[in-house]
Specification:
Two copies of one chain form a homodimer.
Chain A lengths: L14 H14 L12 H8 L3 H13 L3 E3 L5 E3 L49 E2 L12 H13 L15 H15 L8 E4 L1 H13 L5 E6 L1 E2 H9 L3 E8 L2 E2 L11 E4 L13 H14 L2 E5 L15 H5 L4 E6 L1 H5 L5 E4 L5 H11 L5 H12 L2 H28 L3 E3 L6 E5 L7 H10 L2 E2 L8 E2 L9 E5 L5 H33 L1
Parallel strand pairs in A: 3-15, 5-7, 5-9, 9-10, 10-11
Antiparallel strand pairs in A: 1-2, 4-12, 6-16, 7-8, 11-12, 13-14, 14-17
Helix pairs in contact in A: 1-3, 2-3, 3-14, 4-12, 5-12, 6-7, 6-11, 13-15
Chain lengths: 506, 506
């Protein structure tokens, strides 16, 4: 088939950018349908009379952002699951749905799974992978866990066969409430704590409580994909609010209109920014003035390396308007599938009822073990140990970047499990760096590939996210060296291309 | 306050029935609001000039159905959570919702929790409790489970810390697919199986796939409460379809209109009826003709005592239009919180994506243990052992009822964990029997109190559900004896009331 691409020589965009946008639009408009094959780069280059190298880079970027998949010699195909499909932020878009037809799903692109087209590393040629949100398997307290499992099993009685409280095991809710008081400045009672299957389950619960479709949803831009996909999947209208080095730009929230705000104040996902105390107080005031509610996703605040974390919004708010999301996926292990949400006091019983309609709660044994793990102080000890390990990995990453690049423009290094790194000036598009780095055995991710959604795509071009918590120090050093070499090589490779594209538009 | 009740002496209903309906309507219409106190029985009896005994029985029935709560000497109060609130089946009901106000929740009244106002038995005075859907704790394979837990822990690697496939552990999905082929006549591939947190989570997943709000939902009347509450909570319009001794009366489905049908073919909840093969074929034809889909909740079919269970609808259908729900809560233990759903092949990937938005899947360790438990044949052995135990309890219940009542009109005794018992002719309202039996240490349940929803309330008056799977044989005999004594006593007690009410209407 022939692709119809028109280049505007007077446009400020390069040929590569124009080609990317036009093919992307062909895909999104449905003219290029999922599963269709794209013309070979050589053929398209000849047809358009531009360099094959330019077309290859366009295809690479389309692949990196999930629009197409390369299947080696078979060619390049339009992806079956497109990243933008369910993220149309225009409330006036098409809405007619045929009987029993399904909503278009979003791809699985959250913390749980690597982006499409990127397979897990093979054992023979291991990747040094900076995938995000991973706690190191070696930190898992396996012996303690085994001991607690055996102890709880021996007193299980009818707990294995009877239904429990859908809101969670009372010992665990109490342990979590008490831990939040000590660590996050939240004075909450156990009945406000609802144990969930990871924080995504909690986010669903909150959406059910809030009648998602009836309110505007203000979300960080860029933001955590798992939240954006869910809100949109439930029919919410999303309004992106920008983020800077102090987190969400609260001034950009509408003065005259309330709704639901989703924020990651401790460690903004994906930029890593910490919402300043000033802005915390400002957003609480805004929420009060506009009768809004705030969803605070506090996914990794226990890893704060240079001091103590700022009190959670839910702590400052005193249980009025803030729904709090927590998880043990980052602190202990995602395979446990345990998180929790804290709801305002007056909604505690309603939340429990809705939880019973959603899934009747979590495994008794897992909850019982975790409750004792927290209560006995072993959880705090575990956190201290993991914090120390991750801190030294963070230090290693920072010093490696500084060593190879002179200075490194990173955000989010005060805490958490990842940083956002702004590529040195003059570097090629982050999506292309991601693809090329992979060929050299290093897994780095653009915002869009790294479990984030970037509404206008602008910041995706300059930034990579680096999840360092599961990478050993010597591997961090090797990987940063490879990235440095790669960027050097690409600088040389890109020079003729830039000249060539200027010639084209002359 | 004064209650305005008007009796129609020419109506076929007794005074007791009229009073019940009118007070119930006052509560549902909001004239009697949650938390308000009802007049003392003596005062109301004097005011209306009818017997205090009649008013007491009315209050008892209101309490049994969850509309009011007795707080001893403090009086009788309108319940804070009403059973009908979110079950308005009228699609033209009020729908305006204020900004950030919440939907009215339904009470937790499913398998998981005892009905409101009925506490769990205290240890000093144990209740012989026929609560529904309980597997006996003594059947749980504790030693095997411990052994498998330790084995899986020793090879856990990064499984405890990494996110797994949101659709479930592949070994478990494979084991379930294979088990369904052997036991339910379903030829399904592992990718059609989505592991869930109990079947309620699966039902939510199906609702997300089907765009609940866009289709009429046809459900059994009476039906399983967990399903009715969820559908209604998600905004579906419900159409009750009657049930007889052969299950759902398929003829009553509309000829000219499709939608979503929720059925429990193996052991209708709560009546226990088995959907005949003829009707199974008929409903599949109807679904094809009207472009409908069927949700088959197969919650306890592994307990079939007198032969083999009929092939599941999902087996007859061959993966086209039937969504299948299964659970390990009845077969192994509800505390594990593991169930699964089987979706049509073409929706497998979409279901996986939606599952990732809902909760990213279940605990790795629990799934790994269960997979090996099934694959090694230990699950089949467990089922055989439990089936034998429950069969003898069923036999004991049947023979006890026959011994004390001459003949017993029960349905659903071919399989499952409960039967529905039609009270002997001339017995008082089942709700009153439930309340009185509890005072004598026996827990029996009307449909409405026993995790079912009865749309018109008619069958609730004559039937009790008896979940026998966790009651020892000697306790079954004692309990049936007490029920027999109770009904005898109530017959004597009710005679003057009947005479009195006839005098009133003369």
């Amino acid at each position: 088939m022939e692709l119809n691409l028109n280049f505007d020589k007077s446009a400020p965009e390069t040929l590569q950018e124009q080609a990317f946008e036009q093919i992307r639009n062909h895909i999104l408009s449905g003219r290029l349908r999922p599963g269709m094959i794209l013309p070979p780069t050589r053929q398209l280059a000849e047809q358009l009379n531009i360099s094959r190298n330019t077309i290859s880079l366009v295809y690479e970027r389309l692949a990196a952002e999930g629009y197409v998949e390369s299947r080696g010699r078979a060619g390049t195909f339009v992806s079956r699951a497109l990243p933008d499909e369910s993220l149309n932020t225009d409330p006036n878009g098409p809405s007619s749905i045929e009987a029993l037809k399904l909503d278009l799903p979003s791809p699985i692109l959250c913390f749980s799974v690597h982006p499409p087209g990127l397979n897990r590393p093979d054992v023979a040629n291991p990747l040094i992978d900076f995938w995000v949100g991973r706690s190191d398997p070696e930190t898992f307290p396996l012996d303690t866990w085994r001991r607690l499992l055996l102890r709880k099993l021996s007193v299980a009685g009818s707990n294995l066969t009877e239904y429990g409280d859908p809101a969670g095991l009372s010992e665990l809710r109490l342990a979590i409430a008490s831990h939040l008081g000590r660590t996050r400045g939240m004075l909450v009672s156990a009945d406000q704590v609802i144990v969930t299957s990871g924080s995504q389950d909690g986010l669903n619960l909150i959406c059910r409580l809030l009648n998602t479709q009836h309110h505007p949803f203000f979300i960080e831009s860029p933001c955590y994909q798992g939240a954006a996909f869910l809100f949109r999947g439930l029919g919410a209208t999303l309004y992106p609010i920008p983020v800077d080095q102090n987190g969400l730009v609260v001034d950009k929230l509408p003065e005259d209109r309330g709704g639901v705000v989703f924020v990651t104040p401790s460690h903004q996902y994906p930029t890593g920014a910490t919402l300043s105390l000033e802005r915390r107080l400002q957003i609480l005031k805004w929420a009060n003035d506009t009768n809004s509610v705030i969803i605070e996703d506090d996914y990794d605040s226990y890893f704060c390396y240079d001091g103590r974390p700022i009190t959670a919004l839910a702590g400052l708010d005193n249980g009025q308007r803030v729904f709090y999301l927590g998880t043990f996926s980052k602190s202990l292990g995602a395979g446990l599938r345990i998180g929790f949400t804290v709801v305002p006091k007056e909604l505690a019983e309603t939340a429990r009822i809705i939880k019973s309609q959603m899934n009747h709660g979590q495994s008794w044994l897992d909850q019982a073990v975790l409750a004792e793990f927290i209560e006995s102080g072993l959880y705090d000890r575990h956190l201290r140990r993991a914090r120390k390990l991750y801190k030294s990995r963070r230090d290693c990453l920072k010093s490696s970047l500084t060593k190879h690049f002179g200075s490194a423009d990173i955000t989010g290094d005060e805490g958490g499990l990842h940083v956002a790194w702004r590529l040195p000036h003059g570097s090629p598009d982050a999506a292309v760096v991601q693809q090329r780095a992979r060929l050299r055995g290093v897994g780095v991710y653009t915002f869009g590939s790294g479990a984030a959604y970037d509404f206008d795509g602008s910041s995706s071009r300059d930034f990579l996210v680096l999840g360092y918590s599961s990478v050993k120090e010597k591997d961090i050093e090797v990987a940063v060296g490879r990235l440095s070499d790669l960027l050097e090589d690409m600088k040389r490779e890109f020079t003729p291309y830039v000249v060539f594209s200027r010639q084209q538009s002359a």
